Structures are given as C-alpha cells and as structure tokens.
C-alpha cells in the first residue's frame, strides 16, 4: 500500500467516525426526548415510520445524484441536512418542527448511503488499480461502529447527568433546551466538523463536463435503471442484495424487540432505559470487532463464502440465545448477534466493488441500502405483529428462519463476476481472499 493509498484510507476511516458519532450521541435519548416534549407513543411510531419510508423512497434517486454530480457535493449536502435535522429535533418544541427534522434526517441519510465509499474506491483505484480494499472496508465499518458505541455512551452519560441535576436544565416541557437536548447539541457540533472535513478531504477527478439541472434530471433515471438492472442480472450482486435484505430484517427486528425483551427480563422500564445505552454501545463494539475479524476469519476458513455462511449460522444461534428467558444468556446473545453480523459486511463490500463499475457504484450501493431498509421495515412489522398477537418466541423464530435463508443464498456466492474496471489479476481464484498485512483498528 503506497503513501497516497494510506492517506486516502485514513481519511475514509476518519470520515466514517465523523459520520456515525452524531448518530450514536442521539440514539439513546431520541424516544425519551420525544416523550419529554409530550409526544405519545403512537405518534412516535408514526414519525419513525415516516422516517423509514422517506429514506427508502429516496435511496435510488439520491444514489443517482451522487453518480451524476459527484460524491463531495452530495456528502456536504447530506451534512447540511443532518445539521438542520439535529437542531430541529433537539430544540424543536412542536410536533411539526420535530417532524420536519426527522424527515430532513431521512433525506440526509438517503443522500449519505453510498457516496463516501464510492469516492474512496474511485480515489484508490486512480492511484493503485491493484490495491486490496477489503481491509480498508473492515477498518471503515469497525471505526464507524466504535464511533456509534462511544457516542451512545457519551450521549447517555451526558443526558443522564443532566437529568440527575448536574446542570440546571428542565427535564420536559416547551423550553427549547432540555436536559435531553444536550446530546443533540454535541451532535450538531460534530456534524459541522464533518462537513468541513468533507470539503477539505473529498477531492475527486472531474467525472464529466459540468452538468446543468436538465442534464442531471435526465441522467438520474438512466443511472438508477442501470443500477437496478445490474443488481438483478449480475449473480453476485443479486445474492448480495438479498443478503442485505436479510441483515436488514435481523437488525430491525432485534432493535425493535430486544429493548422490550430486556425490560421484561429486568422487571422494569427504568433499569431497561439505562441498559439500552449500554447495550447499544456493546452492539456497536461487537459489530466493530466482527468487521475487524473478518479478514482473519476468511483466511482461517479458506474463502469469503464460507465466512459469510458461518457468520449467518452463528447469528441464528445468537438470536436463539437472545430469546432465552435468562438475562445473562439473552445479553450474550444480543452481543453475539452484532458480532456475527459485523463479519460479513466488509466481505460483501469487496464483492460488490468487483462487480460494479465506477459509473454506477454509488447507485448499486443505494440499491443494497434500499433492500436493507425495505426488508427491515417489513421484518419489524411482521415480527411486531407476531409478538403482539401470539408470542415473542415466534418473532425470534422468524428471524432465525430468515438467517437460514440468508445462509443458503450465501452458499452460492462467487467472485467470478467482476466489473469491467477491475484489473485482470484482481481475483486469482473464486472466493479466494488476499492476505495482506493488516493494521488493527
């Protein structure tokens, strides 16, 4: 790895940290903040559903915008939307203002779901066409997960301290700044830093002549169509898209049911609120560990395909443990779910970039993100209905079954389909994994 590639990788990792740290700061307190503003649970559910639907509907067109206009403009625009959303949700005193903030967050998340990684791949390929990217993807995902975990601990600690009276702030009502608003103010500062860093670091070669609005609007449908076509016709991308849907179902369902299940096991919501921030952090650290371990696991098991299949099987076992009526076993299962799901993601990233060309790379990533969001929403809905109308045991069984389907899909993974811009010697053998010296995050 030459000096330029190392610099690009370092920037990619730092930008991943700055991208997920604000999310971690706000995640443990969002529901509590909405409740402190007087918003009932049914309205919270509607707001979160609107968030998911908005982000899902915009995944493909925003990916097309990134491929047409370039990565940096889209990344900076996403940061601006994140800043506005963070301030509106954190300081808003009416349902309309908070709803506007949540919808802006969804638009920003859709814009942000691919341009950074697409920029990194293009930038590295420009200086070293034979560079191995899997280790960098592992570092980026691990760093993002660690940032999410640290943010959750910091956000929960700051909010908890303010609620305990460490700062003279109201705990509820119409005041713009509540005790639970503090993590949002910290997050806003991180988002500003992120935008400035993107402007300074995300430099890209001129992709095409500067486009006017009419050209951009005309090019997006074609770019989106090409991304959908390649994700359905290319066997590797088709399987990866299905696996993204599987991961979406598992994550969304676990995030929906685990807090309720943990609260039931602990015998009270008060203790569960404290545990939620800790579990969020542990899940982030576990996913980071899984991502960091993926190259080593692949070398040990002998192929990417075996690693992905093994990770999904371990995740299914972990879900079974999470559903056990014993708190230590459930806690261990929760952590192992995230540990197992962290391992395949860098490997699937590498497969994706072998099969996608630079022109539609961001769009392909958006197709995968769309699959994850839509399948996650559907899975959470079905699991919630099962838990409410039958038993939570059936919901856990549903997740285990989905993971089993994912393992069967992963059995057919092959690296034989490569993009036209990959070097001829990029993959010497189907499912073979290069073994460069790796730095640990």
Radius of gyration: 21 Å
Report the end-to-end length measured between terminal Cα atoms. 17 Å
Number of folding domains?
2
Number of helices in the DSSP assignment: 16
Query: What low-confidence regions span 5 or more consecutive residues with pLDDT below 50?
Result: 416-441
CATH class of the largest domain: Mainly Alpha
Number of strands: 0
Query: What fold name goes in the CATH topology slot of the largest domain?
Result: Growth Hormone, Chain: A
Q: What's the order of the H and E elements?
A: HHHHHHHHHHHHHHHH
Any guess at the CATH architecture of the largest domain?
A: Up-down Bundle
The level of helicity is: over 70%
If you average the pLDDT, what whole number results? Answer: 79
Q: Biggest sheet, in brief?
A: none
Structural class: mainly alpha
* Percent strand: under 5%
Spatial shape: globular
**CATH fourth-tier homologous superfamily of the largest domain:** MFS general substrate transporter like domains
Topology:
Blueprint: H1 3-26, H2 30-36, H3 41-69, H4 71-91, H5 95-111, H6 115-127, H7 134-163, H8 182-201, H9 213-233, H10 235-266, H11 269-301, H12 304-322, H13 327-342, H14 344-355, H15 361-389, H16 392-411
Short descriptors:
single chain, Growth Hormone, Chain: A, mainly alpha, globular, 2 domains, 0% strand, 441 residues
Structure description:
The radius of gyration is 21 Å and the shape is globular. It is built from 16 helices and no strands. The longest helix is centred in the middle third of the chain and has 33 residues, at 269-301. The chain folds into 2 domains: 1-202, Growth Hormone, Chain: A, CATH 1.20.1250; 219-419, Growth Hormone, Chain: A, CATH 1.20.1250.20. Helices cover 78% and strands 0% of the residues. It has helices at residues 3-26, 30-36, 41-69, 71-91, 95-111, 115-127, 134-163, 182-201, 213-233, 235-266, 269-301, 304-322, 327-342, 344-355, 361-389, 392-411. The chain is mainly alpha-helical. Helix 9 (213-233) crosses helix 15 (361-389), helix 10 runs antiparallel to helix 11 and helix 10 (235-266) packs antiparallel against helix 13.
């Amino acid at each position: 790895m030459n000096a330029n590639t190392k610099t690009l990788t370092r920037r990619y990792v730092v930008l991943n940290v700055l991208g997920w740290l604000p999310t971690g700061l706000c995640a443990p307190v969002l529901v509590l903040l909405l409740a402190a503003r007087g918003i009932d649970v049914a309205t919270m559910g509607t707001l979160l559903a609107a968030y998911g639907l908005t982000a899902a509907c915009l995944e493909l067109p925003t990916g097309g915008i990134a491929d047409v206009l370039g990565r940096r403009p889209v990344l900076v625009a996403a940061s601006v939307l994140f800043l506005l959303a963070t301030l509106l949700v954190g300081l808003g005193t009416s349902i309309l203002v908070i709803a506007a903030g949540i919808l802006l967050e969804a638009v920003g998340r859709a814009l942000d779901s691919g341009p950074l990684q697409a920029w990194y791949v293009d930038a590295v390929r420009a200086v070293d066409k034979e560079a191995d990217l899997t280790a960098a993807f592992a570092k980026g995902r691990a760093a993002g997960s660690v940032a999410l975990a640290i943010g959750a601990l910091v956000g929960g600690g700051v909010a908890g301290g303010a609620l305990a009276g460490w700062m003279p702030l109201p705990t509820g009502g119409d005041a713009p700044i509540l005790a639970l608003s503090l993590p949002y103010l910290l997050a806003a500062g991180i988002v500003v830093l992120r935008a400035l860093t993107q402007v300074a670091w995300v430099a890209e070669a001129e992709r095409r002549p500067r486009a006017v609005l009419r050209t951009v609007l005309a090019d997006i449908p074609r770019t989106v169509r090409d991304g959908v076509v390649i994700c359905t016709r290319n066997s590797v991308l088709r399987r990866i898209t299905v696996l993204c849907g599987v991961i979406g179902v598992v994550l969304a369902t676990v995030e929906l049911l685990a807090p309720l299940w943990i609260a039931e096991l602990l015998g009270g919501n008060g203790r569960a609120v404290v545990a939620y921030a800790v579990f969020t952090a542990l899940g982030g650290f576990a996913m980071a560990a899984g991502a960091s371990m993926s190259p080593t696991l692949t070398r040990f098991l002998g192929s990417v395909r075996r690693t992905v299949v093994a990770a999904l099987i371990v995740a299914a076992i972990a879900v079974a443990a999470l559903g056990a009526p014993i708190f230590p076993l459930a806690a261990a299962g929760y952590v192992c779910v995230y540990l197992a799901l962290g391992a395949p993601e860098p490997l699937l990233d590498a497969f994706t970039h072998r099969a996608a060309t630079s022109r539609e790379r961001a769009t392909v990533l958006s197709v995968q993100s769309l699959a994850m969001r839509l399948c996650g929403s559907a899975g959470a809905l079905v699991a919630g209905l099962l838990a409410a109308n039958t038993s939570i045991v059936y919901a856990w069984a549903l997740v285990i079954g989905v993971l089993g389907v994912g393992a069967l899909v992963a059995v057919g993974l092959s690296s034989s389909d490569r993009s036209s811009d990959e070097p001829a010697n990029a993959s010497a053998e189907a499912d073979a994994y290069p073994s460069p010296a790796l730095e640990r995050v």
